[in-house]
């Protein structure tokens, strides 16, 4: 495995170096009318190479003008990037029909030239990864997976309007940008972790409190409650998937790295509302008869609690 590229290691403002990819398609309607025709919509996923912040835009069709319009909306909100990396489309050869259509668009010379022309007017260098090498774009592929994998399963067969789907996507963006990266302070009483949101609005992203409707039947919800239900379901599924990646389980093959006192961890709690992360610092551990630690005391802002190791996920920086 090669070293990280310089763009991933240099200090820079958010989205100065950006990766972009498509996710979808999703089906939306123009209005909430009986017999309304559903159309395809695509997520355009932008991810910052430095801060891992995510920006989601919605494209109404798979065309060069629609993509350039999404790119211009991104620039209007996040500023002009210096370098943009993207796929060249040949990764989708032989895939399903909608992926084949996406591959034709991204690999078309006219499309690539239009992107380069639109970006060069603002001094942006647009770069395409080598053909048939999706692992070169692992950073944005991971962002696409985080956004699409659970969003598809949460929405299911529901047909949302364009406005409702845009609202859900914006809330999903906030969830992705609220994930803790590491604890910048060595103060044992400071539990505020650095998140991508700090680089965007200089403070953590927080959601206004909403009534939990995840246990209410879908056919009893209003349209706004349905949108909130999608956000809450996405939060639960994505958080479990994200926290799972922080726990390296070397099943039976080799012992896992023990958690030591002083380690900063995320506490798994299924009852937390969206964009709320419970963070603590290991104060003491309790090895068993086999010298394996399975229980630890965790110091939190509200006091010390005792939790099993399987509920504690060390921050990635550790």
Describe it:
It is a single chain. This protein is α/β, with parallel strands linked by helices and 318 residues long. Among the domains are: 12-176, Nucleotidyltransferase, domain 5; 264-314, no CATH class. Helix content is 33%, strand content 22%. The protein contains eight helices and eleven strands. It has helices at 6-9, 64-78, 97-107, 109-120, 138-155, 162-176, 196-201, 223-245; strands spanning 17-29, 38-48, 54-59, 83-86, 125-128, 160-161, 264-267, 279-287, 293-300, 303-308, 312-314. The strands form two sheets. Strands 1, 2, 3, 4, 5 and 6 form a six-stranded mixed beta sheet that branches. The protein has a five-stranded antiparallel beta sheet with strand order 10-9-8-7-11, with no helix packed on it. A hairpin with a 2-residue loop joins strand 9 and strand 10. Helix 5 (138-155) packs across helix 8. The longest helix is centred in the last third of the chain and has 23 residues, at 223-245. The chain is globular, with a radius of gyration of 21 Å. 30% of the residues are buried. The mean pLDDT is 78.
């Amino acid at each position: 495995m090669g070293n990280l590229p310089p763009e991933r290691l240099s200090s820079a403002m958010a989205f100065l170096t950006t990766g972009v990819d498509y996710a979808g398609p999703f089906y939306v309607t123009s209005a909430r009318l009986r017999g309304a025709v559903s159309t395809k919509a695509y997520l355009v996923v932008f991810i910052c190479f430095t801060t891992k912040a995510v920006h989601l835009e919605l494209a109404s069709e798979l065309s060069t003008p629609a993509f350039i319009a999404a790119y211009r909306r991104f620039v209007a909100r996040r500023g002009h990037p210096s370098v943009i990396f993207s796929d060249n489309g040949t990764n989708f050869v032989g895939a399903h029909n909608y992926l084949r259509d996406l591959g034709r668009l991204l690999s078309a010379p006219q499309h690539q030239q239009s992107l380069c022309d639109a970006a060069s007017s603002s001094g942006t260098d647009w770069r395409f990864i080598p053909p048939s090498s999706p692992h070169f774009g692992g950073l944005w592929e991971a962002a696409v997976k985080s956004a699409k994998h659970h969003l598809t399963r949460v929405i299911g067969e529901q047909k949302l309007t364009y406005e409702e789907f845009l609202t859900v996507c914006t809330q999903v963006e906030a969830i992705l940008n609220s994930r803790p990266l590491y604890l910048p302070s060595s103060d044992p009483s400071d539990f505020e972790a650095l998140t991508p949101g700090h680089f965007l609005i200089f403070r953590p992203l927080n959601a206004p409190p909403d009534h939990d409707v995840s246990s209410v039947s879908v056919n009893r919800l209003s349209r706004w409650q349905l949108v909130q239900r999608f956000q809450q379901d996405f939060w639960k599924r994505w958080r479990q998937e994200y926290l799972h990646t922080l726990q390296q389980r070397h099943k039976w093959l080799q012992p896992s790295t023990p958690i030591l006192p002083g380690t900063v961890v995320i506490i798994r709690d299924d009852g937390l509302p969206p964009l709320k992360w419970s963070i603590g610092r290991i104060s003491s551990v309790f090895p068993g008869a086999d010298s394996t630690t399975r229980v630890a005391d965790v110091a939190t802002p509200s006091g010390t609690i005792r939790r099993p190791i399987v509920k504690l996920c060390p921050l990635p920086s550790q």
